[in-house]
Amino acid sequence: QVQLVESGGGLVQAGGSLRLSCVASGRTFSSYFSNYVMGWFRQAPGKEREFVAVISRFGNYINYADSVKGRFTVSRDNAKNMLYLQMNSLKPEDTAMYYCAAGGTYYSNPSADGMDYWGKGTLVTVSS
User: Fold this and answer.
1) For 8, phi and psi rounded to 5 degrees?
2) Residue 104: what are its φ and ψ, rounded to 5°?
3) The pLDDT value given to residue 56
4) How much is the pLDDT for 125?
């Protein structure tokens, strides 16, 4: 069984910060988490799921959507099977369900279709 579980979402005022976490578990990830490229995506009501950030297997390649560059930081801890997203200077337009995803190939701007495993999401709401 493969599981990705996100946490850390919540309600925050514009300008505030949140740190999202994603823990990977199950036979596929328990010993091989570092085999996977990890990403964060988000989906706002009425909109398609969009790319937020991606990090390569050992963190040497990272990329962000233009809308979050300079405000969000993605990181991973392979020893703990953890993925993180530090979100600063949050804006109301960042309001969305945030999803953790795992895939086999690094792309600087991955599509949602290119990821193999998904969590159920954690909701981030930014009030103005």
Assistant:
1) 105, -5
2) -95, -20
3) 97
4) 98
